[in-house]
Amino acid sequence: MSTVTVENGAFRPPFATNEPVLSYAPGSPERQTLERELERVAGETIDMPLVIAGREVRTGRLEDVRMPHERGHVLGRAHLAGEQEVAAAIAAAQSAWREWSQRSGAERVAVFLKAAELLSGSWRATLNAATMLGQSKTVREAEIDSAAELIDFFRFNAGFVQRIYAEQPLSGPGAWNRLDYRPLEGFIYAITPFNFTAIAGNLPGTPALLGNAVVWKPSASARLSAHYLMKLFAAAGLPPGVINLVYGDARVVSQGCLSSPDLAGIHFTGSTEVFNGLLHEVSGGHYRSYPRVVGETGGKNFILAHASADIEALVTAVVRGGYEYQGQKCSAASRLFIPQSLWPRVRERLVDEITGIRVGDIRDFSNFMGAVIDERAWRKHAEAIAAARSSDSLTLEAGGHADMSRGYFVHPTLLRTTDPGVRHMTEELFGPIVCAYVYPDSDYAETIGHIDAASPYGLTGSVFAADRAAIALASNGLRYAAGNFYINDKPTGAVVGQQPFGGARASGTNDKAGSVWNLMRWISPRSIKESFDPPRDYRYPFMA
Ligand code: NAD
After folding, report:
1. Does the predicted model carry a pTM greater than 0.85?
2. How many structural domains comprise the chain?
3. Residue list, ligand 1 pocket, CB within 6 Å
4. Is 435 a catalytic residue?
């Protein structure tokens, strides 16, 4: 008897709604559970094997996984892959693909709906604790990421699959046309960044949902959450080999994957520089199919205020949009454009708020910010602040403190510049450093032109204005400057099913995570025409 479920019917998965974000207020049950889990996870030093074909693989080449906010504390030791393990992971994916690619959509969707259910329940505290400790997220930042967003990806994707499968062609008389939504032929290489556990789950998860098999390389700075995510996939019933977890040197893993003729796609999120390198390598490769390449990359996200803006809403958006998760969201605001008439009050309010922000160990729930991810990031931010201090065109308005004696702490920093072309206004720093340029109120239109042209990116941006004409000017003038554009709201916090996420230009291929558009990239439709009464004579009537 077949082990594959035999089912008839056009499936309709449960209607998805966004997962509620729990408050973790003092005394709440979720807080008590999480605190116990934080203690458990922090109290262990776990062994973290690769997972290939469902089996744990230990190479003995180990790398420590540490807490960014307490860098002496080792949470685990990850085994690193070499060429041999990468080859084994590719072989495992290809072997699993044979059966997985033939399973019914309902069966694949059920696995990920189960993962959502587990994560919404008993697994929530584990993934949140791993994300907090391993990536230095406050409880709220972990909750909106490793719980809410990832659950949403899994649940909403089910509905997207159904919509895609329902999209079928017309049929003429005597024939039936159908579309068969085939998974890609070969394996998908998923490369994930440190900053979102939801992205780490979604990048291998979405291609797998559509019947593909995956080699997944998580970020070296987010291995702890990757370890638990892999266990979650297994607990949800994902068959061995469909997703293979490979820790290791990015170049070694990439070399193995990109040199395989069976590479069918790359699902990448990370920096523009790394993605450019991958694109370059893929373009020189020889593959059985042209690989699908989806890359969501960097940003230099703006907040533009018009003289009619609501100052309190603007200040809140800058603080949350610029400093939450230490400014390490791809969507984080890092350049501000404030009219001269508003600047004195905006400056005063921002300096006031920033000075009151608490930075420290995320296990102390009164902190608004944790540490930046690693020493490399810390050095980059400390250097940018030092450069600002000694620059003629930059003034330090608030913050500027960076200390790595215990953990990689960088305090929220506000700079002001007289030169909107300075690198702090154009390059992605990916830390809690926001730079403001104050423009003459009469130069609103010119400022829009500058924002559009000054940086190579096009990820997110906001305009704050009460004046509808000012909103229209910004919306039109910045149409290509942001793939996610916000009016009177912060540029971060996109929600699955509500604001499909991604940008173009140097910010990526804009395949919109959290929407049906991303899923389309992981299938290769086959058109089938079946004739019920095919012609039996090649001659046409006009020939008589
Ligand atoms: P990163 O580019 O340093 O790393 C991303 C991934 O690529 C990691 O898994 C890393 O190990 C891997 N990598 C590094 N070098 C590689 C190589 N030579 N070949 C193959 N893989 C390689 O990025 P990060 O620091 O993890 O994440 C931050 C970046 O990600 C920022 O630029 C941010 O804007 C971007 N990001 C973008 C989005 C988006 O949706 N646009 C979302 C999150 C993060």
Report:
1. yes
2. 2
3. 191-196, 199, 217, 219-220, 250-251, 254, 269-271, 274, 277-278, 296-299, 330, 428, 430, 459, 501-502, 507-508
4. no
